[in-house]
DNA sequence: CCCCCATGTGAATGGAGTGTGAACTGGGGC
DNA sequence: GCCCCAGTTCACACTCCATTCACATGGGGG
């Protein structure tokens, strides 16, 4: 996906934080000249300080025939009235200070509606393992894994909490999700099937902790 | 100027107050039938309570060919994540409780801009499949498909979100409408009819994800 | 008014997925 | 070296799910 254009350079720290949190790639520019090279999936223009300069930048973006990326304007609540005569300069605005969730929702809406790019996919990754939560698919070292529902759920849970040890009882209640009498073997068997499908070289991703349970990946406390 | 359409009837009191304050004329309706008579400069859909009904109303607005009024959605901050797959239903949203000044600014922006995102092409394509949203026709490999209304709607929804898995419940609520009671078998049967009409070679476009639901086409593996 | 087509629902079927018991393995402690 | 315990592996039975068929409903057009 194309990165997101930010103005000014550097952007406000809350913008950077929200972008990183949402997993977008971005790039900051200080003037319109720099904005004309490259493709952008959206542009964020912070008009909290030096509003006039920001408006000028937005106008330049609009005039540049190449870039038709949608513009998200950041503005103080006290400055909302200044938008009244500038509707042509932006596509959406966000009142600062903003909540990161609202910010991301507006950004996503702009990008999706603008048809500029696809939404970032929800992924769980660990090393060479990638779980696509939207498509229920798993890939390791580029090779697709053909997992059943329970195998997928178990792997997702483990990979979402790498390095942490779970007892069989915990796994049964968190993955299977119901009160369970006996049958701790169930977990073992599913772990075995997972290991065999992960293949020889990655089977060690799921480690046995004797007398305790299983954990995924390396411990955070060092090998 | 044409009045502003409000849903539900009566609208939330804060909406009424803000509209009166800003001097807009408005009218409230309780269902989509009432919305089809008359011209509106914008539509405000409050989805704070009974979000599903509100989404269904917004969808009906979008489908009604007559009304092209831009839609402003009111939504709780905690419900922002529900917007993720519903971007086509609205043009802008406002998080409640809102400040009247922000509300008015968004409304004005919508009206002035006239709803900013006209979809450039009314086509949905995936591989050899082409859906013409204006003429309600479907073509695959150059061969026209004779689809019924529900089959078309289902295929449109799936093809608009390729690679993503949807549960039967999600499909029922998103394609059939909200709070549809009854058989998940309904989805299965329609999928089967779609597959048979797609023909042997393309039947695999709709994939079954066991214990989960259905998905369309291949997965998207974000960067 | 009747027919036809679109749509929804229940039941039968076949098969993939899952759980369980039992045999097997391996390692640590005595 | 032996025993015991925990984990692993295997085979099989059974449950649950998707598919498919057959039929009921109901609305629109001829």
The helix tally of chain A amounts to 7
* Element-level helix/strand string of chain A: EHEHEHEEHEEEEHEHHEE
- Specify the structural class of chain A: alpha/beta
Q: Give the helix level of chain A as a range of percent.
A: 25-40%
Cα-atom radius of gyration of chain A: 24 Å
Q: Which protein chains are joined by the largest interface, and how many residues does each one contribute?
A: A-B, 37 and 36 residues
Which strand-content bin applies to the residues of chain A?
Answer: 15-25%
Looking at the structure, what is the overall shape of chain A?
Answer: elongated
Mean pLDDT of chain A: 87
Poorly predicted parts of chain A: none
Q: What is the number of strand segments of chain A?
A: 12
Question: How far is the first residue's CA from the last residue's CA of chain A?
Answer: 36 Å
What's the story with the biggest beta sheet of chain A?
5 strands, parallel
Oligomer: homodimer
Strand order of the largest sheet of chain A: 2-1-3-4-5
């Amino acid at each position: 996906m194309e990165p997101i254009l930010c103005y000014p350079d550097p952007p406000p720290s809350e913008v950077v934080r929200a972008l990183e949190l949402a997993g977008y790639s971005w790039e900051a520019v200080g003037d319109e000249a720099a904005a004309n090279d490259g493709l952008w999936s959206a542009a964020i223009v912070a008009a909290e300080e030096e509003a006039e300069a920001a408006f000028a930048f937005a106008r330049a973006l609009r005039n540049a025939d190449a870039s038709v990326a949608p513009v998200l304007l950041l503005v103080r609540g006290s400055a909302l009235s200044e938008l009244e005569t500038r509707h042509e300069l932006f596509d959406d605005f966000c009142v600062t200070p903003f909540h990161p969730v609202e910010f991301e929702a507006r950004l996503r809406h702009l990008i999706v509606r603008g048809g500029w790019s696809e939404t970032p996919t929800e992924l769980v990754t660990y090393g060479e393992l990638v779980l696509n939560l939207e498509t229920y698919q798993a890939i390791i070292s580029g090779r697709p894994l053909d997992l059943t529902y329970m195998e997928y759920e178990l792997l997702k849970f483990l990979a979402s909490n790498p390095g942490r040890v779970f007892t069989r009882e915990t796994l049964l209640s968190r993955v299977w999700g119901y009160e369970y009498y006996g049958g701790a073997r169930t977990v073992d068997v599913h772990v075995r099937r997972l290991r065999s499908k992960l293949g020889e070289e990655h089977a060690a991703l799921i480690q046995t902790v004797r007398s305790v349970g299983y954990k995924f990946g390396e411990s955070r406390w060092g090998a």
